[in-house]
Design brief:
The complex is a heterodimer of chains A (about 160) and B (about 170).
Chain A lengths: L1 H5 L2 H8 L6 H26 L15 H21 L1 H4 L3 H25 L2 H4 L7 H22 L3 H8 L2
Helix pairs in contact in A: 2-4, 3-4, 3-8, 6-8
Chain B lengths: L1 H10 L2 H7 L3 H27 L8 H5 L2 H21 L4 H6 L2 H22 L2 H6 L9 H23 L3 H7 L3
Helix pairs in contact in B: 3-5, 3-9, 7-9
The chains are: A mainly alpha (about 160), B mainly alpha (about 170).
């Protein structure tokens, strides 16, 4: 099945087409999506940690759709890159660490929405729940680890040498 | 000039250090991506707000995160120099003669000039004076749009460095 996906017309096009819009473009989209999601998350997290208190937390809500945009770009570009490299990626444990960290980061984002952005005190600009800082730190941690694992997915020999497997 | 640059770069022994320490390249790759999101997260967000996204956030307040982007850029210049100096295949010349790399460097230079124009021509002051819910002036929107286009193009051509042949082929070179 993995082989069939990798040999599909689409996966082959992504991997082998000399078109500008094939592999390298999709790889670039993946980096751009990362910069959008993680970049915006960092600023939101720093605000929740207490920086720039003059920015109303409620006003940051408008940035959430942009985080979902970045995430969506990366879900699609990521699936395309995975199809093109299925056999390598699915045998790379660092790739699964990366996916786990992204899942944790996205679950953490939903908790942040439910517990911080939907808190009446935040909506009315009268206060911030104490849990906000915890969610902010977790988001920075999960996204940082996702990037580390994502980059290390490209260096299996190095990972083998340092982690032993 | 190129020879002088390469001589200074290699006089640091960076090529030998990268060749004998397998962690340097992957760790620098990780740092390079951190620098990228720090730059896009701070500068890119100011640009988005100037273009009219997320009104309610004061532009001046978002601008306080720009130093984070400057740190990101510094991290990327440093790790970038390590990549160029420590390139195990073909040395620094391989990068300096790589079209995607040349385009990326030119775009970073233009993006830098764009930032200078933003401050020197008083555009930043006009943008800062925009009320939290307000619309930034057209001049600021132009600079912001150009900034986003330039920085995302930097990412694009950065990724193309490793696939320079595809780029040359597409351009018919």
């Amino acid at each position: 099945m993995i082989e069939a996906i990798q040999n599909s017309a689409y996966a082959t096009w992504v991997r082998e087409s000399p078109s500008f819009w094939a592999y390298t473009w999709i790889l670039s989209l993946h980096a751009m999506g990362l910069a959008i999601v993680v970049g915006i998350n960092s600023i939101v997290a720093l605000r929740l940690l207490g920086f720039t208190p003059e920015i109303k937390i409620n006003s940051l809500r408008k940035l959430l759709p942009w985080m979902y945009l970045g995430f969506t770009i990366n879900a699609f570009s990521g699936l395309s890159l995975l199809a093109a490299n299925a056999q390598n990626d699915l045998h790379n444990w660092m790739f699964f660490v990366k996916l786990s960290m992204i899942a944790l980061a996205m679950v953490n984002l939903e908790f942040t929405k439910a517990n911080v952005f939907n808190d009446p005190a935040v909506i009315n600009n009268t206060g911030v729940p104490a849990s906000a800082k915890k969610f902010a730190l977790l988001s920075l941690l999960f996204w940082s680890l996702a990037i580390c694992a994502g980059r290390l997915t490209e260096y299996p020999a190095f990972v083998q040498a340092w982690f032993g497997f | 000039m190129e020879q002088t640059f390469i001589r200074i770069l290699l006089s640091t022994g960076v090529d030998n250090y990268v060749a004998t320490h397998d962690w340097v390249w992957p760790v620098c790759e990780i740092i390079h991506f951190f620098g990228m999101f720090m730059l896009i997260g701070s500068v890119g967000l100011v640009d988005l707000r100037i273009l009219g996204v997320a009104k309610g956030i004061p532009i001046k307040s978002l601008e306080r995160y720009v130093p984070l982007g400057v740190i990101g850029l510094a991290l990327n210049l440093t790790t970038g120099l390590i990549f160029v100096g420590g390139n195990p295949v073909g040395g620094p010349q391989e990068y300096l003669h790589n079209l995607a790399f040349q385009i990326k460097m030119a775009l970073i230079l233009i993006a830098g000039l764009n930032v200078i124009a933003f401050y020197v021509f008083g555009i930043a002051r006009a943008a800062d004076a925009t009320p939290a819910e307000g619309d930034a002036p057209m001049s600021a929107k132009f600079v912001a749009g150009l900034s986003l286009l330039l920085w995302f193009s930097v990412i694009l051509f950065g990724r193309y460095i490793m696939y320079n042949d595809t780029l040359l082929n597409v351009l018919g070179l």
